């Protein structure tokens, strides 16, 4: 729940509409983003600050192992997908799907699914090269 609160405050800081009309939709969207980004990491790493920094900050080291890629890539994919999904909102088409947070939610889901497929593919390729015998 704390992650959803941080995500909703970040969304408001980046331009999400504020008001009683949008309060529930912003909370629902932040819960969706929390489900894609924070919940998998909490389930696997718990409160290990070292693991969280390794997975999300990319400062000192990169994700290592298949589990790290399964957490890292879909989380980043959801964030990038939500960001890319926001581009049609300010266009003046007056379509119902341009309302907050419909296109951002679809973008997050699409980004999450694409990154999930990419992470699975990278894991398969990585495992294939890891098990090759060398002379």
UniProtKB/TrEMBL annotation:
Pathway in which the depicted protein is active: Glycolipid biosynthesis; glycosylphosphatidylinositol-anchor biosynthesis
Transmembrane segments: 25-46, 67-86, 106-127
Bilayer topology: Multi-pass membrane protein
Tagged with keyword Transmembrane helix: yes
DNA repair found in the keyword field: no
GO cellular component, one term: endoplasmic reticulum membrane
Pfam families from the UniProt entry: PIG-F
Species assigned in the record: Juglans regia (English walnut)
Highest taxon listed in the record's lineage: Eukaryota
Name of this chain's protein: Uncharacterized protein C1450.15-like isoform X3
Keywords: Endoplasmic reticulum, GPI-anchor biosynthesis, Membrane, Transmembrane, Transmembrane helix
One GO biological process term: GPI anchor biosynthetic process
Subcellular location: Endoplasmic reticulum membrane
């Amino acid at each position: 729940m704390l992650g959803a609160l941080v995500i909703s405050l970040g969304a408001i800081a980046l331009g999400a509409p504020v008001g009683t009309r949008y309060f529930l939709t912003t909370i629902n969207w932040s819960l969706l983003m929390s489900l894609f980004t924070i919940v998998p990491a909490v389930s696997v790493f718990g409160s290990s600050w070292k693991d969280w920094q390794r997975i999300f900050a990319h400062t000192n080291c990169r994700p290592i192992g298949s589990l790290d890629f399964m957490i890292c890539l879909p989380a980043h994919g959801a964030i990038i997908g939500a960001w890319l999904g926001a581009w049609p909102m300010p266009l003046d088409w007056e379509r119902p799907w341009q309302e907050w947070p419909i296109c951002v939610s679809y973008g997050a889901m699409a980004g999450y699914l694409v990154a999930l497929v990419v992470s699975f593919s990278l894991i398969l390729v990585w495992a294939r090269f890891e098990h090759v015998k060398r002379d």
